[in-house]
Task: structure prediction
Amino acid sequence: MTPLYAVFGNPIAHSRSPRIHALFAEQTGVALRYEARLAPVDGLDTALGAFHAEGGCGANITVPFKFDAWRLCARRSPAAQLAQAVNTLGWDEGGLWGDNTDGIGLVRDLSRVLAADAHAPLQGQRVLLLGAGGAASGVLSPLIAAGTRAIALWNRSAEKAQALAARHSALAAQHGVDLQVVLDPPTRWADGVINATAASLGGRTLDLPAGVLQPGQWAYDMMYGAHDTPFVAQARAAGARAWDGLGMLVEQAAQSYTLWHGEAPDTAPVLATLRAEITAAPSS
Ligand code: ATR
Result:
């Protein structure tokens, strides 16, 4: 039987993951089925159990289940453990294992766009991370490990940023990264700004003081869309170079694919295909 994979979320109809994994499978000549599965908001455990009984080999997990998935895993990677969130899981003789590939996806795509733009690499940079929810927690440890010099964490609710920073303080010390929570986003400070808030989802622009975003900076929105996201538009209007998170989506999927199939797909043509499809048919 063809190995079965899926992405679980609620809602899930919008997910691009089945398309991305189908493109990877076609490229690498691996036979697989990859489906989008809707789970009830309080029913991930049951849905995963049924999926595994049906022959499911592995799954991606998206909003709102990344924290539930983390709780369900018998074993977790160090990145997933720090994030307290899992976006990739599979079953082996030890039961359910979980990993989080979001941060690797972000660092890989960010490194790619910075290099293509002849920008300084991530190493040694001061980064402002906006948000402290699931998206931010998934990327913080790889950002620290990428050799950034300093990371300022800002969130509308400061206590969530404090908890996130506290969990990562030992890793930051180990890598010599100055990790701080800021109550106000610092002006004229960051080399790059990452939006991990859900503000773009609602089509809203973040209320940032003038000078947080500025010329010479890079800016990255973990959201993506057929058109510029509000954050990308806001950053460009302030003079920064800005990118959306479609590349991150493809890179995190590629890392999941590598974990399951032991082969790393070439992400560049898949990203190009996806970008063209999203631009041509935004609501599909
Ligand atoms: P996700 O898993 O997508 O990160 P989440 O855990 O609900 O979703 O977190 C959403 C993040 O976006 C949070 O950091 C949230 O701030 P709060 O912790 O204060 O709720 C942030 N957020 C959402 N809408 C926002 C807005 N309009 N302005 C600023 N931050 C916003």
Summary: The chain has a mean pLDDT of 96. The pocket of 2'-monophosphoadenosine-5'-diphosphate is lined by residues 63, 131-135, 155-157, 160, 197-199, 204, 206 (CB under 6 Å). The two ends are 29 Å apart (CA to CA).
